[in-house]
Amino acid sequence: MKKMLLILMLTVAAALLLTGCASSADTLPSPTPGTNNVTIQPLVPDMNGNNGMNTGTTTMPNGTAQPLNNGNTMTVENAQQAAQAMKEAVIKLSEVDEAWVVPMGDTALVGVKFDSQYQGGADDRLKKMVLTRVQSVDKAVTKVAVTDSAALVTAIQALAETLKGASSLDDVNTKAEDMLKQLTVYSE
Questions:
Q1: pTM for the whole structure
Q2: Which tens digit of pLDDT belongs to each residue from 37-69?
Q3: 126 burial class (0-12, 13-18, 19+ CB within 10 angstroms)?
């Protein structure tokens, strides 16, 4: 009888211990570092001929509300908004200190200056991370041309500045196409 009582008490104690451990388990997945809940509409035409934008406004990563524009082609304003949002998304990478982005259809030109502690360069791992960040802004972008070459970064920076003050995308797209010839394009 004493053995039976001892076994019963040990079983109850084990059950209490196991129950205590199970109750503190985190059942929700932890958030990925560096992500946020900002929803940004794609800025290129979709299959229906829309530019992927709704009427009203959208909240940009910096917290400002931007007016949306309906139309069948990417406007200068859409390209400027996309470039800024993509830049902000790329800068969130711990390896990147500064970035300049010029969106061009399904491709984005990205010039980066790395954090002083990062020694890896613009390898495929980094290019994949940049593509993922750019796609968080616009899923239609399937390719990125990422460079850390000082001369090309300066050229992309100048092109991004040109985009900021552009009244037409023709000149920007022509210069971007010329620049793409000097870069390796990464896609998944």
A1: 0.60
A2: 444 444 444 443 444 433 333 444 444 434 333
A3: buried
